[in-house]
Amino acid sequence: MLAQAGGYDLILACRNEAKGNEAVEKLKSKVPDVSASFMKLDLASLKSIHEFVDAFHATGKPLHVLINNAGLACDFKDTTVNHTEDGFELTFGTNHLGHFLLTNLLIEDLKQTASKDGEARVVIVSSELHDPKTVNHRMRNDIEFPFEFDNLQFEKAETYNGLRAYGNSKLANVFFMHELARRVEGSGVTATALNPGFIPDTELLRGASGWSKFMLRNVLYHVLRLFNVTRTLDHGSGMIFDLATKPEYKGVTGKYFNDYQETEPSEESRDTEKAKKLWDVSADLVKYQAAKDLRV
Length: 296
Description:
CATH superfamily: NAD(P)-binding Rossmann-like Domain
CATH class: Alpha Beta
Largest sheet: 5 strands, mixed
Structural class: alpha/beta
Low-confidence stretches: none
Oligomer: single chain
Distance between the termini: 32 Å
Number of helices: 9
Shape: globular
Radius of gyration: 18 Å
Number of strands: 7
Helix content: 40-55%
């Protein structure tokens, strides 16, 4: 959608170089005059994030919109804790800590753009699974779990399952959005979060087992469509496009959206003290103390 709208210099940041370049070529075949390029970024690696930011800065390009859209879900029934190369629980490390570091390393770029052009935007893709009340009763037993800082990465391994880890990381996304919006208020940089809905046609389930992928994409997908649970790729990306570009969202910050509507996120996600604490804990984990000093 961004490519078709025109006027944007798109950087597709992803960990798989072959797929990234393929995506760029597909864009150019559909929109020949699009300005798009691939840059390698693995959000499960702090080293890769720093290298990406260095490479971006070397281009000398301004940054108007940062879309934090990477997401990973392990098999929802998996009870084995997996870790990133830096030792973080894989889902939390990728879905939250990776975005946290990336955004903080690029925040000055966004502030510079806002000072020149009047605005810059950060869009964070979360999920309705950040709120246990949105899921059915059977799943709720798996996901309903307090956000505990002494068990943030499932140090108590017996409490882990893939669904809970995913929900935990998506709750962290909403905490992050709220605290980022608070810290940059008045700078012209805005932060919003959204639930794009369950979209089977993405790489979200790359950590799931083959059987789980088959069931979700070929069986449950059709059942869930009957209950208006799943979304098409166009529908989900449309919400992201609107928050990233539409004039009516200029100045909108600290808000959560679901199905194109501003919605209250979970009660827990609106806990200001937890959001502040998660920010500081995240800064310590990714070893980027400058994040603690972020203010307008």
